[in-house]
Write a structure and sequence with these properties.
The chain is of the alpha+beta class. It has 3 helices and 3 strands. The protein has one domain. A hairpin with a 5-residue loop joins β1 and β2. The mean pLDDT is 93.
Length: 69
């Protein structure tokens, strides 16, 4: 049976653009090409970035944003 997982955001942003800007501000552009992420909408309507995979952990992204494996 599948289990539903709810992601609790580290920090949320009012819109997708602000979430995108926060990522670009925290992470150098040369590292962004190596990383994968998506912008997720929380149940309260706000947005937050979620990074995917081991490379995000190796770059220390989990100290700033959510990461899933």
């Amino acid at each position: 049976m599948a289990n539903l997982i709810q992601i609790t955001p580290v920090k949320t942003y009012a819109n997708r653009e602000n979430a995108q800007k926060a990522v670009e501000k925290k992470i150098p552009a040369d590292h962004l090409t190596e990383l994968r992420y998506f912008i997720h909408q929380h149940i309260d309507g706000r947005f937050f970035p979620v990074f995917i995979g081991q490379q995000a952990l190796q770059h220390g992204i989990h100290f700033h944003f959510n990461v899933v494996g």
